[in-house]
Amino acid sequence: MKSFFRYLAVASFVCISSSLFSQDFSALEYRTIGPSRGGRVTTVTGTPVLPGTFYLGASGAGVWKTDDYGTSWNNISDGFFDTPSIGAIEVAVNDPNIVYVGTGSDGLRSNIISGKGVYKSIDAGQTWDHIGLAKAGQIGAVEIDPTNSNVVWVAAIGDAFKANEERGIYKTIDGGVSWEKMLHISNTTGFADLELLPGNPNVVYAAAWKAQRTPWTIISGGENKEGGIYKSVNGGKDWIKLETGLPKGLIGKIDLAVSAVDSSILYAVIEAPGDEGGVYKSVDQGKTFVQTSNNKGLVNRPFYYINIELDPTNPDIVYSNANPLLKSIDGGKNWAMMSVPHGDNHDIWLNPNNPDLLIQCNDGGANVSHNGGKTWSSQFNQPTAEIYQVAVDDQYPYWIYGAQQDNTTIAIPSSAPSGTSAQGTQVMIEVGGCETGPSIPKPGNHNIIYNNCKGRFSVYNKITGVGREYSIGASNIYGHNPKDLKYRFQRVAPVHISPHDPDVVYMGSQFVHKTRNDGVIWETISPDLTDFEADKQVISGNPITRDITGEEYYSTIYSIRESKIKKDLIWTGSNDGVVSLTQDGGQTWTNVTPKKMSKGGRVESIEPSQFNPAKAYISVDRHLLGDATPYFYKTEDYGKTWELLTSGIPADHTAKVLREDPKTAGLLYAGTEYGMFVSFNDGQQWEAFQQNLPVTPITDIIINRGDLILSTMGRGFWVLDNITSLRNPDVATLSDSPVLFQPDNTIRYRTPRRDKGFPNYPTTGVLIDYYLPKDGKNNVQLEILDANKQSIATIISDSTKVKSTTEEVEDMSLSMSFSYFDTKLETKKGLNRFQWNMLQKGAWSDKESRSYKNGPMVPPGTYTAKLTVGKKTFEQPFEILVDPRLVEEGIDKTIIAEHLAFENKVLDLLTEARKFQSNLEAEIKKSTGDKKQSLESVLKTIKNEEGAYPQQMLVPQIAYLSYIVGGADKIPGNEEVERLKDLKQQFNAVKEQAKLN
User: Which distant-in-sequence residues (6+ apart) come within 8 Å of 459 by Cβ?
Assistant: First the structure.
């Protein structure tokens, strides 16, 4: 990806009326750079009709499909689904083209994404229709009647964060045109699972579950009347509760499995207190149950796991997905651990015709096995990582850092890290810390990384691979009641480096801590900056299972930012809704929480203005309190008053992050639960800025060297190259006249040839944005001029003009100008983007598509883009800059210019030699006798013979010299200089021998 220096003046955007039409930004596309390592997958399935076809449903990445046994995966829900959170996928037994998906994953983590109903495909996932139950919340199961694919059942857990009446069991008999609620217990109890009896789909089992998330605890289970197993024998008209042999007291999450070969056998894995939790088995269709095992691994962290499946050919072979994956071969009595590529297991599906062919999923992705789980397919082909934050370093090209949920911290290059990088190969390194982050490279020394791992601070050295932990308090805080902790840290506790001194690092517990020596000595520079309500300081997990991993610690600092323009001006935000400010480096603090803001929200991000020290922006997330409303606020008086900035953002797009453009005041970028937005008038009005981004939470945003970089909770990192045009006031007022935006200054990187594989590393080029008020109808031309206003290249949008421009080039043999047709020079109405590859005229070729193409990269310097639309022309200057890595190497503009002059001499000779060969071949066709033989003997000296490994003759030798000269910016080697002289002499001798006119 290109990096850029900026020499643009800072300009304020005037306030723009909200009545202005929204611009179409589709020409500005984001690109994904990975990582290509799988993230959390909550459900999987397959179809026996197509044994190589499987589906996965991720917690934040939508639905993906493989047709090659997991060798490759492709997303099939993008553009159709309103949420990326998937709870269940089911394929019709009688028609593999019919697929139903219930959204909203059933593992109720604190960062769970809400479901938005059920989707249906009748073409195996090529297209989808939303078919209802939009308010059903998280969906635990979808079951299709095997005798009629229009009859479908859904188990709705409900809203994860508040009571709602939509919890229950639903049924459609018309393929989703209408739904009927078949079973409902209360607005706090939903259903985690349901099963249809094989051979008689009118017999239905359903598992009730009382569940809710709050910021400080997870409620999983309740009194016996609030949960348990229900059964209907008449298609859901009537229900009875199954009780004999099952727990009588508290009961939590339950998952069910019915044998496909013996319908009398029913298994249930049940969350219950003490030894009552475990696996239960019925051999009489649920009339009675017997507990077969209370193995703790079966009910480990039940709200998040609990999934039981049977071998479709043998009811004694049972699988339990939890942590770890367990297998029983004696009907659930004894269990052995199975090895899988990743821990935290969620689902498994076995092919009924061949149970050794199966797919299983976990927090590292989905994996297919052909041999019953002995070996598995790769998880490094699913770019579904959940990333908490994003940071960048100061390398060229810059690298991007973050922490992947349930995996490691990672750093990946924004572009091919070198000109010889292998395309299609993911470059990724681990940089210390752990899954939660943040992971922040030190300015001025990208080899030093500051990390947080679930509240523990460490400093990682990329050179040695050593991480040194200097945790505040030096205490393991897992499993505690937060009220008893000296320091309360969130799992994603903030780490912030002072913009004024890279040796100063801040970290947040309930206090702000500061170190000047990489954590060896910490000082606390604030009082408790949280609300710290006593009733929220509880041991998380009730009424049955404790769950205290740190993400439930309430009343902690969640964000810290020091002003870039005023030292010691520090803002903080807590996860219980308190905003604080110090203007003297922590000596005094003021609570500046917006007075009209509802209590308890999580202050996800703080953005001090880079133009006005009194100004700051915050984003507040209250969705864990049952309020999905986005809350973005702005203050211009150090927090005395705040203004809500949400006009244009949908009501359920929970606020995640807001960042201010560092070059243009009033230009803001906002990330929400379901995508991106931009404002050109300081937040008064927002416009969708989603383009080709998938629907997924935007967890963090950073602007670096003119690029917009995002982290997401399910689709890894994304980059929008070059946002310079957005900084131009004209972009918000485009109307009746064409506009050519000033291209950004572009670093002259040498990058490898682009590959269609992953990750999406672009080739180097100048991005040129232009606006057309109407379709150009092939009436657009782009010309690149050098500092002397001499034409370097002309790109045309009308292919019919190619012939005339080619003839023009023929007559300009020594000119560096050439013209060519490029379909990527768009002529559509609206904003367009063209990437000029920075290549000047190359050598002539007898193949028209290659002639004069792929010449040398132009030298650093000042250039002009000239756009012609009809009879109107527009010009904008820009610079091409030397790669900073070359500067360090001693390669400057003078050397590049000398090298280019030499390379052009080689290309001129190659052009002349190729044309000579073409003319010689034409003359041979016309000749006869001795003349023909004479000319053929000349041709043999310059053209290779057919066949393998021919001797390289004169023209290929010139081409080879061109190849080795053009591979790098360098001082021409003496051998190359002498070789050019030699080749010229040989060529002159050949011309003399041929005596062509």
Answer: 432, 448, 449, 450, 451, 467, 468, 470, 518, 519
